[in-house]
Specification:
121 residues, mainly alpha, Arc Repressor Mutant
Length: 121
């Protein structure tokens, strides 16, 4: 038998009640139930990021290097960099001015619209 070590853990009441109930049904101690749960836990149960998340080969290496470089920046520097990148598409292809066509049933409708527009409404 391996050497025993005492540990202290904090768990929600319902989890403790469940462990105690299981221990009672099995005729074992609470410590035995917790130890078995730890033994049964496999690292493969842990959710991990897939290794292919950044692609493969040189492209993956470049993305990881860029991520590491970005994480070295302060939040303000990252925000500034993101704003700079967001401006690039407008430099390449500026927005065209929109043309709006408005129709009116009468000159009076047009006049009211014009007055409201001048007033800032």
């Amino acid at each position: 038998m391996s050497k025993l070590v005492r540990v202290t853990i904090t768990v929600p009441r319902d989890v403790l009640a469940s462990a105690d109930g299981r221990a009672k049904r099995l005729g074992r101690s609470r410590s035995w139930v917790v130890a078995e749960a730890v033994r049964a836990y496999q690292p493969s149960d842990v959710v991990r990021e897939p290794t292919a998340a950044y692609g493969e080969g040189e492209f993956a290496d470049a993305r990881r290097k860029q991520l590491a470089a970005d994480l070295r920046l302060s939040p303000a520097e990252r925000l500034h960099s993101a704003e700079e990148i967001a401006r690039i598409p407008r430099l390449v292809k500026p927005r065209r001015r929109r043309t709006q066509i408005i129709g009116f049933d009468s000159f009076e409708d047009y006049f009211e619209w014009k007055k409201a527009r001048r007033a800032g409404a």
